[in-house]
Amino acid sequence: MNKILLLNAILVGCIAASSITVGFWGQKSSDQEQNLLHYCAESNWDVINVAFVSEFGSSGYTEVNLAGHTAVNCRNNGDCTSVGNEVTACQQTYGKKVLLSLGGAAGNYGLASASQANDVADEIWNKFLGGNGAIRPFGPSAIFDGVDFDIETPNQVTGASREPQAAFYATLATRLRSHFSSSNRNYYVSASPQCVYPDAMLGPDGTKTGTLLTAAQVDWANIQFYNNGFDRCDGCNIFGSSYATRLGQWASWAASKQSSFLIGVPGADQARFADSSSYCQGGYVSLQTLESALSQACSSYANFGGLMIFDVSAEEVSGGQTYIGSATSYTHGLSCGRNPLGSSGPTSTVATTATSSTRSPSSTRSSTTSSTRSSTTSTSAQTPTTSAPGCSQSGTPSTGSCPTSGYMQCVGSNYQTCTNGQWSGVQACAQGTACSPNGNY
């Protein structure tokens, strides 16, 4: 009996995932924050920003404050070698990218001149990145994968105004890029502006062309749709009064710079923290609301890059592990957008379907290959697809239990998602688009 094998929609192997997840570590928003390696071992995170380099430039020295994770701040040679060893393990054992975040809401930092900005860039390169400085606070073998700019205030040392200091951060980033070009290693520059557009310190600002997000090359921006203050709220937190406008502005910036933007949120409700008055100053949304925002951004903007959460310690508060695990899994399952890490980013599963038949009788079988993401097994369905249980193309939504969190399916021209084991209500696609069973919606 001759068998004829018919192959349909064959794609074998791993492809770069479209969306990444970024978490901040080091500031102990929860006092129960674990060591860095604990979070690197999880599948939740692709990039971890170690926070913060809270003193540099006008302070006269460069220092990393890890909020008690180390006996002293990371300033002198070997001060924080234990954390440095974890950085290396995160990269080599778990395939994570580990960046060093500059700034934060408090500290003694600022730049008084372009010359000083270049000097700080040289110091950061030689102390923390690929340089060969005599002083290596995290040890001689710890090399961070780049820097994040979380510049939230003007010069905290001298009290200088926003201008022209803001332009010097672009100078700093450009000088770092010149060092990156001398290495065959991939380094990254990210920024973490607040959702108000333009950001007060980072830009972009058409009338002040020297700001970081205007004049420097930034691989992605973690937009803080939180932390905008109860007394100065712009309404740009997720689905706030100006959210859609701000999201569109940041997407336009990303497109103009061939960069990506990530949606940034708090990892837990502020009321779950002991110091609830200061944690992220609002912006927490339910998991269903967050997933809806991620889905809409991904389907609407080609430069959507994923999800950022401040901070990883939110996993340690009540409900935090479930919230973060579900949100990051959902993000990894999105099949649209632009991976900011490029070909070195995380990978996601690609489904393969083989239909085999004989002249008589006929039979059908399907097989799905799974792949690893950052050395941690991860299986995610193509989005949406008609091959999974409960898929509806007739316009009638599914109800009740569903197979995989983060899974999506078409309901007519719209879609619904699998959230915590239950089908969501029907969600509208972005204006001018419609759900398609091949994943393009």
SSE layout and pairing:
Elements: E1 3-8, E2 15-16, E3 20-25, H1 36-40, E4 47-57, E5 63-64, H2 81-94, E6 97-104, E7 108-110, H3 114-128, E8 146-151, H4 162-180, E9 188-191, H5 212-215, E10 220-224, H6 243-256, E11 260-266, H7 287-300, E12 304-310, H8 320-333, E13 347-348, E14 351-358, E15 367-368, E16 371-373, E17 376-378, E18 408-411, E19 414-419, E20 422-423
Parallel strand pairs: 3-4, 3-12, 4-6, 4-7, 6-8, 8-9, 9-10, 10-11, 11-12
Antiparallel strand pairs: 1-14, 2-13, 4-5, 14-15, 16-17, 18-19, 19-20
Helix pairs in contact: 3-4, 7-8
As a whole number of angstroms, the C-alpha radius of gyration is: 23 Å
User: What structural class do you assign from the helix and strand content?
Assistant: alpha/beta
The secondary-structure element order is EEEHEEHEEHEHEHEHEHEHEEEEEEEE
Uncertain residue ranges: 1-15, 271-280, 348-394, 437-441
Mean pLDDT: 79
Distance between the termini: 43 Å
> How many helices?
8
Major sheet summary line:
8 strands, parallel, barrel
The number of E-state strands comes to 20
- Assign a percent range to the helix content: 10-25%
Shape type: globular
Physical arrangement of strands within the biggest beta sheet: 3-4-6-8-9-10-11-12
Strand content: 15-25%
